[in-house]
Design brief:
mainly beta; Immunoglobulin-like; 3 domains; six-stranded mixed sheet; 1 helix; 6% helix; 42% strand
Length: 320
């Protein structure tokens, strides 16, 4: 009889323990769409966070920070005592969790983060055939007839449908029928074979209503013609007017290398952003040394290099 009593007591305690357990989790329509623990907003949207059914609820938020660990306090959200919580764009860069009670059980959910849709602003990469072009000004390039120039979106994974232009459109967003639109071209790259001022407008894949225009200052003017430097094509001779040289990797996220081994040392290196602002300057740079550009904002830049003989090279590069 005593054995049966002990067994029944243990069974009863086990049942009470099971009933007292609660493990809240948070769900929402876009949670995990790209990152498992984040809700990504588009421009102006609401998102509903939900948890399982319990006796009571209290939602909390914590401001995001770069610092690790995050020492910002968790703050109880006033009036947020329901099974669901609606958040919006003002709640971006916050963590959320919910504290629940069920009988004699109290528990908190794992935290999730509400983030804005982070994406790279439009940037365009231009690919030229060596010896067939000459950059005569920032964003203005003379190209030999019969050659071609390939333009690409630096962030093809982020953007979906593109609209390509052969001149700067009259409005942003462009209106249907704008004469600058290149009809029928919607991919993330375009190859130009005639004169024009090229750029694009594109919409993000995750947020199809969120679209961006390449800054008109970053459009590239191509002038196709039988230029004097084109006379050397097919002879294997370098163009005497060629003011460009090899820079790599391009695009780059951290280090940029410039080089002609014959120059060895460059008396001056300057990097200028697309607004004309000087963002970096170096003296006595060795051609095989990396230039750290990790601190630069992603986008297009001009690098101007002067060798020991005073010859100046101008190149564009893209900071990822």
């Amino acid at each position: 009889m005593k054995t049966k009593l002990i067994f029944l007591t243990c069974l009863l305690l086990g049942i009470l323990t099971i009933k007292a357990q609660c493990n809240p989790t948070i769900t929402s329509p876009r949670l995990g769409a790209i990152f498992p623990d984040k809700v990504l907003f588009c421009t102006t949207e609401n998102e509903v966070l939900s948890t399982q059914a319990y006796d009571s609820y209290q939602w909390y938020k914590q401001e995001w920070t770069w610092q690790t660990p995050n020492n910002n306090p968790w703050v109880a959200i006033s009036g947020a005592t329901s099974q669901q919580l609606t958040i919006n764009g003002n709640d971006q860069l916050y963590y959320f969790k919910v504290k629940v009670t069920q009988g004699d059980c109290t528990a908190e959910s794992p935290a999730i983060m509400a983030d804005g849709y982070v994406y790279g602003l439009p940037a365009m990469m231009s690919t030229y055939t060596p010896g067939t072009y000459e950059e005569i000004d920032m964003g203005v390039v003379n190209v030999c007839n019969g050659a071609s120039v390939k333009f690409e979106n630096v962030f093809p994974v982020v953007y979906g449908t593109h609209t390509w232009f052969k001149c700067v459109p009259g409005s942003n967003p462009p209106t249907a029928g704008d004469p600058c639109i290149i009809a029928g071209v919607t991919g993330d790259a375009y190859t130009a074979t005639e004169s024009g001022k090229y750029g694009f407008y594109a919409c993000t894949e995750y947020c199809p209503e969120q679209c961006e225009m390449l800054d008109p200052f970053s459009f590239v003017q191509l002038n196709f013609g039988n230029w004097q430097f084109c006379e050397n094509l097919g002879t294997g001779e370098a163009s005497p007017k060629d003011s460009n040289m090899s820079i790599y990797p391009n695009p780059t996220a951290q280090f940029l290398y410039i080089g002609k081994a014959s120059d060895k040392t460059y008396s001056e290196i300057t990097i200028i952003d697309m607004s004309g602002k000087l963002v970096l300057k170096k003296s006595d740079h060795q051609y095989n040394q990396g230039i750290d550009v990790s601190h630069l904002v992603p986008g297009n830049y001009m690098i101007v290099s002067k060798n020991k003989d005073g010859k100046v090279y101008k190149n564009k590069f893209i900071k990822k």
